[in-house]
Design goal:
heterodimer, A: 190 residues, alpha+beta, 60s Ribosomal Protein L30, Chain: A, 4-stranded mixed sheet, 5 helices, 4 strands, globular, B: mainly beta, Rossmann fold, Neuraminidase, 2 domains, 5-stranded antiparallel sheet, cell division (chain A), OmpA-like (chain A), cell cycle (chain A), Bact_OuterMem_StrucFunc (chain A)
Chain lengths: 190, 434
């Protein structure tokens, strides 16, 4: 029996390797690499340094731990449609407040607009329990928008648990990208 | 001397299969490999049956693989046999005794004029030189695999005293990223053969569960509008209906032992609680009412109790609920994460996901002796499901970053891998006896 199985396993492994190589790799957090040196070397005679093309927020190293609260994930407008969460948490991160206020403003000004708040969890733990955890995240965002005065009739929540990951790897950073609520406009998209 | 056996279960399983030939697209075939066996596995020689190599299904190969995969037996490779008898009168016990074999199976399969096959075999005790079983079957070609599994069941029961579970099915969800319908609900024979697709969808499919008679399944599907609904699906007719589509979570269906009710998780009351849904009347009864998460119910065999996952003490733990007075008691105490219980048919063991040092394993709690043991070495384990004879647990885990199924015996001594050729395989549910 064994002699039949090994070639099969080889095929599986080959398939896996192929799948991996075609998978888009994680975005490089290139802004973190040289940051340390740059801030240290303060020239004594500053002569018209070019303004940083990106806001200073990008100088905060992006890690799996601060991913949910990292300013680079939120532009403060309705263009941002994903809110991230810390591990085992359903607290809306402070960095997302301005973005969510922009959505609230838009929804109040556009009563026909409707948004579905899609809650997600990372892959750790059991599936239905993760569905329940992800529901708490979508409810936290719903509560935030309600407090801002958005009508309940414009909001709907759905909990997907770990079933629809955004990142398919199995690292801490992949998990950080998957713990999220997606604001999915089902009517009156901004 | 041969008995003609009309095995009802074989005919029924075959009928279910024939009627549920749905769209057969890409099939994620399961392959099976034993990674850890028992040191005291019983040596048995299944000699190639006469005519087996020319038949559409090689019955002796299937029986040998079945017995091997159970981990209870150490099967002899045909190449190592000194002789290859195909009937009792050709059998020389000495040839198997010198190879330390305890049992030998010999047989034949022959095509008849009607196109059916005449399958005969015998099981013999080598030391006592005694015939233990002799049977014959006359299946059409389409039922040869069913007959092979029925023979495996008969041999397994004769030698272990436990009903064999080789004629059962495994229901599971597959995920193939980048395809039009990445989520599929499929089932296959317990050895991974004869894969059938039941539902395919762009949206997630979750939590498949068998009715106690094996004729129906329940599952959660987010198809069409992206919202979760619980379906009850009749396998023979492929007819299905939505039984729950409330606001919020509609999840974790589990069939009651009498087949009349589903325990489900609904969050329509503001947070996830467990309800009992009467499938005849549609009546809904709330069984838990707690601000924490209550989910993943499973019925105890008595039909009067449920075990479920609850966060009422902080992290997830296993609780038991009396459905009559709705009282609950905590059952799991080891560690900070215990979830998604299943129960053995005799009600003695709980099987659930247990986190230790950041890894998720399958643990077995002996409710009689009060002991708890981790039985897997893999570390992203989920969805354990117990075989109907209580011998093995099938579960989902990750192998090199992709979802695969594995099986382990209740005592942790036998481990079997079921890697998939393509895509992820997850959430296995072992059928009842069919």
């Amino acid at each position: 029996m064994r002699s039949f199985i090994n070639p099969f396993l080889a095929v599986i492994l080959a398939g896996l390797l192929a799948a991996c190589s075609s998978t888009p790799t994680e975005e490089d957090t290139s802004s973190t690499d040289t940051m340390g040196q740059n801030t240290q070397t303060t020239p004594t005679t500053p002569v018209e340094r070019p303004k940083p093309s990106k806001p200073e927020t990008s100088s905060i190293p992006l890690t799996a731990e601060n991913f949910h609260n990292h300013p680079s994930n939120y532009d403060g407008t309705t263009d941002t449609r994903v809110i991230y969460f810390a591990f085992d948490s359903n607290t809306v991160p402070a960095a997302a407040f301005e973005t969510l206020r922009a959505h609230a403003k838009y929804l109040k000004e556009n009563p026909n607009a409707k948004v579905r708040l899609e809650g997600h969890a990372d892959e750790r733990g059991t599936r239905e329990y993760n569905v329940a955890l992800s529901e708490r995240r979508s409810e936290a965002v719903q509560k935030f928008l309600r407090v801002q005065g958005v009508s309940a009739s414009q909001l709907e929540t759905v909990a997907y648990g770990e079933e629809k990951p955004a990142a398919f790897g199995h690292t801490e950073m992949d998990w950080a990208k998957n713990r999220r609520v997606v604001l999915n406009y089902t009517a009156g998209r901004p | 001397m041969m008995r003609i056996i009309n095995v009802r279960s074989v005919a029924r399983a075959a009928a279910v299969m024939a009627l549920t030939m749905l769209a057969l697209g890409a099939r994620a075939e399961l392959m099976i490999q034993i990674t850890e066996g028992r040191v005291d596995a019983v040596p048995i020689a299944v000699v190639p049956f006469a005519g087996a190599a020319d038949a559409p299904e090689n019955i002796s190969d299937i029986v040998r693989a079945d017995l091997h995969r159970s981990g209870q037996f150490k099967t002899l490779e045909p190449g190592d046999m000194l002789s290859r008898p195909t009937s009792a009168d050709q059998l020389s016990f000495r040839d198997f005794r010198v190879l330390n074999q305890e049992y030998v199976v010999v047989g034949s399969m022959q095509k008849t004029d009607s196109g059916a096959y005449e399958v005969r075999y015998g099981l013999y005790d080598v030391a006592r030189e005694k015939q233990l079983i002799t049977e014959s079957y006359r299946p059409p070609a389409s039922q040869l695999r069913d007959v092979a599994h029925a023979i495996s069941d008969r041999i397994y029961e004769e030698l272990t005293g436990i009903q064999g579970a080789f004629s059962t099915k495994i229901l599971y969800v597959t995920f193939n990223r980048g395809t039009q319908n990445p989520y599929q609900l499929q089932y296959a024979d317990a050895d991974g053969a004869r894969v059938r697709t039941i539902v395919r969808s762009r949206e997630p499919i979750m939590s498949p569960s068998w009715s106690p008679d094996g004729s129906k399944i329940a599952y959660v599907s987010f198809e069409k509008d992206g919202l979760p609904k619980i379906y009850v699906h009749d396998l023979a007719s492929a007819q299905r209906r939505v039984v729950a589509q409330y606001k919020g979570i509609n999840g974790a269906p589990a069939w009651s032992p009498d087949g009349q009710r589903l325990a489900v998780t609904l969050s329509k009351g503001g947070n996830p609680d467990i309800y009992s849904l009467d499938l005849n009347s549609g009546a809904l009864e709330q069984l838990t009412d707690h601000y924490g998460i209550d989910t993943e119910p499973r019925w105890m065999p008595d039909g009067e109790h449920l075990v479920f996952t609850s966060s009422r003490s902080g992290g997830p733990q296993i609780y038991e609920l009396d459905i009559n007075d709705k009282s609950t008691r905590r059952v799991s105490f080891e560690g900070a994460y215990n979830a998604r219980p299943d129960v053995t048919p005799d009600g003695r063991y709980l099987v659930y996901v247990h986190r230790r040092n950041g890894s998720f394993h399958v643990g077995v709690q002996d409710l009689q002796r009060g002991t708890f043991d981790i039985v897997t070495k893999t570390d992203m384990d989920e969805s354990p499901s117990v075989a109907p004879n209580g011998s093995m647990i099938i579960y989902g885990t990750q192998y090199r970053g992709t979802g695969v199924l594995q099986a382990v015996s209740i005592d942790g001594r036998v481990k079997v891998e079921l890697p998939s050729k393509e895509g992820e395989v997850r959430e296995p549910a072992w059928s009842p006896f069919l």
